[in-house]
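dumping these here so i dont lose them again. two proteins, back to back, each one seq then structure tokens. dont judge the mess
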Amino acid sequence: ILVFLFCAGSPCMNVTYTHQSICALKGSTVDISCFYTHPSWHNVTEVSWFSKWETGVTNDLSQDPEYTDRVEYHRQTDKDSTLKITDLRERDSTEYKFRFKTVHAEWGYTFSGTTLSVTGLQVEMTPATVTEGQRVTLDCRTVCTLTDNPNPSYIWYKLGQRLTNQNNSLILNPVSSEDAGRYSCAVEGFEDLHSPEETLTSTLVSVSPSGDIVEGSSVTLTCSSDANPPVQSYAWYKNGSVYQSIFYGNTEPQQVFSQIKSSDTRQYYCWVSNGISTDRSPSLDIDVKCE
């Protein structure tokens, strides 16, 4: 609690802020409150809240276009004030101060107020580079600790659908291709405020043409992935070894056999990288038949 006093041979004028700092969730609503006192003969003529002190701007927030339809002033007594801000945005992170005027004085706007930090949710994946069969943990993070909910319960979603029976951390052990998809989280009680999605990519190898593969025919293997950001490089493997006929780290997703041979009968898979993480496709069996 911050208390600022002004005494000059008469009863004090003061402003008391309930919180020095507040951390709130992006998209939610926050209440910033204070109490103030003044001599009984000082009739209050105006109360207001401000921000943007670093620029010297002291316009009432209720008149600020950035806060249009998002701010309200509330009071329970004649000596308290609460600033309510709805639909919080990250740019709302700043210091807020209260001011009141009487017929004799103006007070409250020159000292520190309440600093608001607005945080979004982020999904953190461990390890950052995922290999099939590993233990993968997804954690929901905020930049600062939520003032009204310092130990929140999190809800997890896959492809926008709520997952059941999950703890605050989502554990995939072992992770498989069936776990591929887009994951997001939300704080319980604020289910409509999702984090950005974190994608576990689904990487597959397909063969064209489909059907029987005959020796001497043209066959194309294609490595596809829904990685976000998009894949930057591909690496092909044949029976567990790097396939030397393909440049390792190729930027093209295809391997073309212009005249496939019976010796090309093997298992093939690809690794992809988007510069952030890597992923491996399941193996694809190629059986080349003789004419």
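---- next one ----
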Amino acid sequence: MPLHDALESMVAKLRNRVLSIGGRKRFRSLATTTSDHLPRKLPTSLDFPPWAYEPSRSCIDRRGARPVMTTPHGIVDTPGFVAVGTNAALKVVDFPAADDAGQQLVFSNTYHLLLHPGTDVIREAGGIHKFTGRDGPFITDSGGFQVFSLKYGGVAESLESGGELKRSPSRGKKKPYWRSDVMGKVKVMEDHVEFKSYRDGSKIVLSPESSIRAQKDIGADNSASVIEQIIIPLDILPPHHIAREELAASVERSHRWEARSLFEHLLDSRDRKQAIFCVVHGGTDVELRTKSLEYLTTLPWDGYAIGGSLGNGREEMKTLLSWMMPLFNTIERRDKCRHLLGIADIESIHCAVHHGFDTMDSSYPTKIARHGTLLTKDGLIRIKRGQHAKSFGMKIDHDCECSTCTHYDRAYLCHLFKSNEPLGLRLATVHNLHFMNRLMADLRRDILHGKV
């Protein structure tokens, strides 16, 4: 590179860094006040450096016949299913088996990785890709979902969806197995949220900035110039039944936290090229959802995630998506990824794809597999039922080509589950992952042919 060009590049990088730091300082001055009850001014697009608005590294190319999401190391077919590997691991299957089943994106949880093994350990290992031996892209969340599940009492349900709190050993014979001494003790302040580790009861402080730093540690890779990782900012996740005044306050604070997260991300995003998605909130309230969407999409995010409560049941979710998702079709918004957080059962997937979602994550297919429920084109199969005990030579799904269906029949799967053999869990999980990815491939084909 000529000396003149090298100097010009160095000056440009320095200018951008100063702009990002200056913007962060301006935002902190706007966000800080002496009382949690006083309103705070949110930053605008002008508070962010110009280079942050360059074309996204995770944009969706919707101009071609087949929409894809670009990542630093390649593309991800969309719409696509994202499997949940809470502890940087898919339960009972390894990543090569998941890759063989067509799994492209995996979702891991910062909250659990922060508590064990610690994000510093993952950073020292060379990042999550080297730590796990997986080359494919990851999405990491902020950890907020688990924290606010503790606060609002939904922790048991959230942990059944992939968490590990119930496996924490008790200290002493009189201690409860579920460590109820740490549940519900969550303190939310303007700057951060405090909670106790379910592993040892130690105090944990999570802020928008520390959540981003933790996720960057998880994705750190000193040997590569680019990283395949999508990160999520810290936000507040209120329950469905919350009063509107509280919901509005949580949306405003989420916006402040997400803006702080974005500033933190931009400080070194030129070196570590993770993508960052905002999280649109507002529950089922039309005004709050619209306000959240319109504000967040003015900032330089790489993609949009839809989070928070989507209603009390699937019908409310369908109503919400029917009026909200068209708002993403403006010129400024249409080429960025749209991710549906935490929902990916079969019926919801069809609804989400119809409304333009590109990716969606859920532990649903792997969780039900471990309980003996298998996915097929004709509906669910409860493989532990006696009717399958002599289903010799019968595949789980008649035209499935996964490794489980290629080598084993329903009778053997029924035997494995009845005998409590761990192999049954693995084979069922491989099949369900393959089914989900084949379903997404079929939907992509339908989009190509104009059927969706």
